[in-house]
Amino acid sequence: MKRKLVLEDGTVFTGYAFGSERDGGGEVVFNTGMTGYQEILSDPSYCGQMVTLTYPLIGNYGINLDDFETIQPSIAGLIVKENCELPSNFRSEETLHQFLKKKDIPAIYGIDTRKLTKIIRSRGTMKGMFAPVERPDLEIVQQLNKTTLPINQVSQVSTVKPYVVPGRGHRIVLIDYGMKHGILREFTKRNCHVTVVSYDTTAEEILQLKPDGVMLSNGPGNPKSVPESIQTIQLLLGRVPIFGICLGHQLIALACGADTHKLVFGHRGSNHPVKDMETGRVWMTSQNHGYAVEYSSLKQTELEMSQYALNDGTVEGLKHNHYRVFSVQYHPESAPGPQDSNSLFDRFLQMIQDHKQEEATSWPNVQTFIKS
Ligand SMILES: NC(=O)CC[C@H](N)C(=O)O
């Protein structure tokens, strides 16, 4: 069945429908990773977005049981050049089409994804929607111009109830703004005791769990659309070591008084070079973000830029001058992508260890001990 993709600027691409028969719409973005379509389409940070994959052949290793970043994908649509209907991989359980149909995610194949990417790269990300070829283009463009992109997608993808993944190591409270499972995996691999809580859990409720460290996850949308989370972080600053990834990084920046802005077309892919300012080392990183921390706004805060993107100078890492707080704009859990920066999870656990040691030897504790 033929299907078209219409952008809000009137550009039309005609291809073929696969996945759900339902037509859908969202913000059209592109990802330049050559592999990892399963992780990409199940990453909750893409909630409400239609993702174009620039690699031309998609679906060739099928869908397996292991590589999901969440059970319920929230991506609005998938746009590919060629959809492979006969996957070949020992882990494959079903085809991409079967999976998308089951999850009610519409997709299109057979369009020039390079051309689409070049349009987005020069004009910026745009709203778009799938439609039957018979429907008049003008009518669709008018509909697109009338619709606004959703706000506060975090509430749609965050866990509703808290849950625990037990371990005998450090106690981590992981605030789920739309967490990729990869983040949880990194902590369980290191034997941590992880309590995953919803985005609107208060600072008081979090501190009652007596965390050794608080992890702020990735998540969809504009960081400014979750003011309650910014307030929570403000109340946690200085009381517990904090590590932020992607949306978590942006929320730390806002909580400390810095600003964020929307990038023209964002960073989405598996090969984004980032330079660490302290060591001079360059890491290849996995990225998926449309917003970034405003560099010039950092001077009014106690935050310092620790890493930046070599492609365009975007702030990619932050550290706090006084507190045990740091964050990165990219994904050290990779999934998909290079694992160069995986050691950041060890750095966080070391930070927690240092904090615990300092607490154990600090003067007020000795006084308490003497009094009792
Ligand atoms: N992966 C993320 O956490 C993305 C953060 C934010 N939604 C952005 O697009 O910039």
TrEMBL record:
Active-site residues annotated for this sequence: 246, 331, 333
GO molecular function: ATP binding; carbamoyl-phosphate synthase (glutamine-hydrolyzing) activity
Example of a GO biological process term: 'de novo' UMP biosynthetic process
Annotated binding of L-glutamine, by residue: 45, 219, 221, 247, 250, 288, 290-291
PROSITE patterns (alphabetical): GATASE_TYPE_1
Pfam families: CPSase_sm_chain, GATase
Record keywords: Amino-acid biosynthesis, Arginine biosynthesis, ATP-binding, Glutamine amidotransferase, Ligase, Nucleotide-binding, Pyrimidine biosynthesis
EC number: 6.3.5.5
Pathway: Pyrimidine metabolism; UMP biosynthesis via de novo pathway; (S)-dihydroorotate from bicarbonate: step 1/3; Amino-acid biosynthesis; L-arginine biosynthesis; carbamoyl phosphate from bicarbonate: step 1/1
Chemical reaction(s) catalysed: hydrogencarbonate + L-glutamine + 2 ATP + H2O = carbamoyl phosphate + L-glutamate + 2 ADP + phosphate + 2 H(+); L-glutamine + H2O = L-glutamate + NH4(+)
Residue numbers spanned by region CPSase: 1-170
Residue stretches making up the Carbamoyl-phosphate synthase small subunit N-terminal domain: 1-131
Protein family according to the UniProt entry: Belongs to the CarA family.
Function in brief: Small subunit of the glutamine-dependent carbamoyl phosphate synthetase (CPSase). CPSase catalyzes the formation of carbamoyl phosphate from the ammonia moiety of glutamine, carbonate, and phosphate donated by ATP, constituting the first step of 2 biosynthetic pathways, one leading to arginine and/or urea and the other to pyrimidine nucleotides. The small subunit (glutamine amidotransferase) binds and cleaves glutamine to supply the large subunit with the substrate ammonia.
PANTHER family per UniProt: CARBAMOYL-PHOSPHATE SYNTHASE SMALL CHAIN, MULTIFUNCTIONAL TRYPTOPHAN BIOSYNTHESIS PROTEIN-RELATED
Subunit field text: Composed of two chains; the small (or glutamine) chain promotes the hydrolysis of glutamine to ammonia, which is used by the large (or ammonia) chain to synthesize carbamoyl phosphate. Tetramer of heterodimers (alpha,beta)4.
UniProt xrefs under HAMAP family: CPSase_S_chain
Record-given protein name: Carbamoyl phosphate synthase small chain
Name of the encoding gene: carA
